[in-house]
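Hi team,

Below is the intake form for DUF7467 domain-containing protein from Phaeodactylum tricornutum. Please confirm the fields before the structure is written into the shared record.

FORM ID: S-0412
PROTEIN: DUF7467 domain-containing protein
ORGANISM: Phaeodactylum tricornutum
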Amino acid sequence: MRLFLPTAAALLLASPTMFSGAQAQGSSSVTGPELASRKRRANSDSKSNASSEEKRGLDLIRSYNEELLRYLQLTTADENSLVPTPGPTLAGAEVPTEAPLVPSECIVDVDITCTLGGSGLPCESLTAPPLGICVPADGSDLSIVTFEFQSTPCAGGDNDQGTDAVCTDVGPGVPPSGADVSIVCEDNAEMSAIVLTVTPSSGITAGDTFTVEEMNGGPLPLSMVCTISDTGSGAVLQTNTFDLSGDVSLDLKDSFGSLILVSCNDVTCIEELNVVYNLSNVGPDSMTFLDLFRDFNGVAENLVSQVTPNPLLPGQSTSVSEEFTIDVCTPGLFRISIAVEAEPANGPVCLADDVIEFSINERPTTPTT
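The structure came back. Fields below:
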């Protein structure tokens, strides 16, 4: 862009006053003195007009320069605000895109196995022992018996031995539940050479069991007396005498004061259950176990902290084990269930569950074959 800036001289030459003065001189006839007087006035007016016109010209130049500067500033700002336009895309060219995230797949399998601690047979094979089994039909002797201790006075005993069973509370009687007792069992016959072993013999609390057997594995005495004492002070709390000869009634669940008979020889009311929860990742991706809830007859617990390893890789398996003790002399239904929740790296959770049930019926009146 080309700009033309007026100068003071140019503005003076373009003054209308100067042009009008020149025209007046050329159109009149005057005398000498008047002409001299007019020249003096003209010179004075010319100087005055020139000074005024020069000031106007300078003001005009200053205003013009300000407008020019403002224009240049606006032009520079517009150029800096321009955004480059991307060039055209080649025809047929493919723009690369990010591959979509494929969600992980979660498939978990779980099953429960339950076996008996003594025989390894399935828990479903459990049956209640027959009544009267502690008096062997073949006349064989008892070699080992197991009792459960309960803090019960003599009046709470329940058996059919009549006067052959004698219970005596001594001093303050049996301590409340939670207190430790010691138990010693001996042959009731005087001067007997039979030595009985009690296991455990001390630190016994309500609900604990202990066994009594002849030290060398021989038969138990015909009559036995057991003394219950306070573990701390040694004070006698209760004594119990009962018949083991087989000539009088003796059965599982018979109670003698604080002692309840729970097994005789190899027949028992107490069964140990070995329960195993088998977990397998049968899906294509690794998974992390979030929960593993076990419910055994209404008693629930989350066992996920026992899952090792966790997470499981595809095709990998693991297991969690537990042991339970149940009373098979009391009829009832036993139910064990497991519910598992697992989660893959970037997909929805998956669930699995399993359950087993078995029942114990009333004890039969005669031994089963």
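SUMMARY LINE: The first helix runs from residue 8 to 13.

Thanks, M.
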